[in-house]
Amino acid sequence: MAYRTINGVKLYYEIRGNEEGEEAVAFFNGVMASVNSWSLQARVFERFGYKVLLHDFKGQLLSEKPEGPYTFKEHAEEARLLMKELGIEKVHLIGTSYGGEVALRFAIDFPDTVKSISIIDSVSELDEVLKLFIQGWKDAARAGDPRKFFWDMVPTIYGDAFIRKNLKMLEERAMALEKVSSDYFEGQIALYETFLGDVYMTDLLERISCRTLVVCGEEDILKPRKFSKIIADRIQKSEFAIIPDSGHVTIFEKPDVLNSLLLGFVMKSSDLYAQ
Q1: Domains of the chain
Q2: pTM: predicted TM-score of the whole model, two decimal places
Q3: pLDDT tens-digit readout, 147-165
Q4: Torsion over CA of 134, 139, 144 and 148, rounded to 10 degrees?
Q5: Which of 211, 148, 146 is nearest to 183 (CA)?
Q6: Does 181 or 215 have the greater pLDDT score?
Q7: What's the rounded mean pLDDT across residues 180-207?
Q8: How many CB atoms lie within 10 A of CB 93?
Q9: Residue 34's closest CA among 15, 59, 52, 9?
């Protein structure tokens, strides 16, 4: 397992694909996830010769979990420093949910290093419903019952069709969560507090100058399309896509549709494939 200490915090990372590739793609995880959550997307970019970077933010499963809350600016800076240590100067960012919000902050703070960003099921501000959802997650994490925590999350993040078709897989994920380290929930609480206190960046989005793809699941009740529309409307070079029959976890629910969107967008934003 590979780690780098960035700003005093051990971050877990993986490099996949063409390690000598001129074009790099970095995937930023959703809040509860780890690097393996991108397996359906990363392999596509590996096949097309991209250098692929995955890492867990501080507070996530495989990275160190210092006391929080943190800031999205810290996450972005730590990701940038990790890339510099690994020799990645310019990058395409793909982030889902919390990871999309870190990608937005990264593009705001480090515009010269970003070739494109793809933002999936993310927000740049909160409403009262979203606050209540996340407060409920925080309370469930504090209770420390992995199975109850997982099943409390399921209806807020997955669409109805996906749940009905994948109950066995979801049960396996609930069982896997029972085996995570005891500090997992401490990290989750820190990340939820970070989200609630620091995700507001709508007024800064006009500073993003790179090509941007904004994607949302049509049935996302956690972060519905109005939030994605806010992001797309405020970024000049943006494209907006709604994926039918998908809840919040589009990377799992509609991987084939999403992968086609992501690959096409990143390729047309890449030097290797520029017309």
Answers
A1: 2-273 (3.40.50.1820)
A2: 0.96
A3: 999 999 999 999 999 999 9
A4: -70
A5: 146
A6: 215
A7: 96
A8: 30
A9: 59
